[in-house]
Every structure is written in C-alpha cells, then in structure tokens.
Amino acid sequence: MEQNGAVEDAAAGGLDAALSRVGDRWSLLVVGSLLDGPRRFNELDASLPGIATSVLSQRLKALEAEGVVVASRYSVRPPRFAYALTEAGRELAGAVRLLAQWGAARGGLGGEGLVHAECGGPLEARWYCPTCERVLDEDDGAEPSYI
User: Fold this and answer.
1) What is the pLDDT of residue 60?
2) Nearest to 72 by CA among 118, 39, 105, 36
3) Is residue 84 part of a domain?
4) For residue 1, how many C-alpha atoms fall within 13 Å in the half-sphere facing its CB?
5) Most buried among 51, 61, 69, 115, using CB within 10 Å?
6) Do 26 and 61 meet the contact criterion of CB atoms below 8 Å apart?
7) The domain spanning residue 28 has which CATH number?
8) What pLDDT, in 10s, does the model give residues 46-80?
9) Does a structural domain hold residue 124?
10) 136 falls within a domain
11) Does 129 fall in a domain?
C-alpha cells in the first residue's frame, strides 16, 4: 500500500517530535533504566556504563523538563534525588522495549527478546484498533495510517 505525502509528513512529524524529546542515545538508555522503577542518581550512573556524570545530570534535567522524568528529593544536605518515569515516560516503555529487542536481534546479542512471563513464549507487537476491536495484520493488507 502506497502512502501519500500527507501521511508520510505526519509520520515524519511524529517521529521528529518524539526524537527531539528523547532521541539521543543516553536519554533513551536513562528511560530504559527507569522502566523497572525509581532509581537514585548513583544507581542510574552504575546502570549506564560509560556515561559521564555531567552527561547523566544533563539528560535527567532535559527529561524532567520534557515531562518524561520526575525527580523526588530524598536528602536536603547534600541535595539528593530519586528519579522515576512520569505517565508520559511510562508510555515510552513499549517503544523502548521494542527498540531494544530490535537492536538485540540485529546487533548479534542473541536472546529471544521479550517473552510472556507466564508461559515463556516470545511476544510480538501488533497494531490494535479499540474502535472496531480488530488486530491489524500485514498479511491481509491492513496497515496503520496517520491522520
């Protein structure tokens, strides 16, 4: 199915907006590190080998300004914070996990990727329309489109 220019522009615009908010390597890794719950600065620093503390601090401030991360003070002197994802940050979870799975599969890292916790079977992402309660399947030509 061929896309028209308006659809391509909407897709590019949405992707551009997302990448401008959280598109650099370290920001996505910070979000990924916070998927399992809040962490203190030192815990984040330890979970992200290779990041300079100044870069981590900058990324946390930028993510907080974008409404993706919230900082909670747990010590006044010295000032120390724990960081957690906001609702907007938690909405990124699926995209970050899919991107991580895609990278692992193509980066020679092996592994099965995301699996169902109950049965251990591999998980697959599908587009779902809650209006018509239909899963869009590539085999029948149904594709998501932008408005």
Assistant:
1) 96
2) 39
3) yes
4) 11
5) 69
6) no
7) 1.10.10.10
8) 999 999 999 999 999 999 999 999 999 999 999 89
9) no
10) no
11) no
Given this model, what pLDDT does residue 2 score?
46
Q: What is the pLDDT of residues 3-17, one digit of tens each?
A: 555 545 656 677 788
Rounded to a whole number of angstroms, the CA Rg of the chain reads 18
Residue with the larger pLDDT of the pair 131 and 7: 131
Main-chain dihedrals φ then ψ at residue 134, nearest 5 degrees: -130, 135
- Rounded CA-CA distance 69/115 in Å is 26
User: pTM score > 0.85 for this model?
Assistant: no
One-letter amino acid of 3 = Q
Q: For Cα atoms 59, 62, 65, give the angle at the middle one, nearest 5 degrees.
A: 150
Beta strands in the chain (DSSP E): 39-40, 69-75, 80-85, 127-129, 134-136
CA dihedral 123, 129, 132, 137 (to 10 degrees): -60
Q: Which residue has the tokens 């869009």?
A: 136
Question: Which is more confident, 85 or 22?
Answer: 85
In the chain, alpha helices (H): 5-22, 25-33, 41-47, 53-65, 87-91, 93-106
